[in-house]
Fold this sequence. Notes:
Helices cover 70% and strands 0% of the residues.
Amino acid sequence: MKGELIALASILIFFMAFIWTSHSGPHEWEGADSKAESVIEEITGGSYAPWLNPIWEPPSGEIESLFFSLQAAIGGLVIGYFLGYYRRNAGDGN
């Protein structure tokens, strides 16, 4: 019963944060890459040239978001697997 209450409270907190954020005005969701790019531009005065170029660029922002989401999901699965493995073996007294 305690687990269900914690899950319900977590969902409720997330939902309330989502509602508050979506109704608190217009937002621009910008990644860290563009902020870093503007800081580098400001520091170097536009004279910076990247050392390497990407091998392949996704054809659209949606595909790029898909790859980022897949990367996060795979990372979460790997971390979850090892945490579960550790917890199971730690419970055995080994």
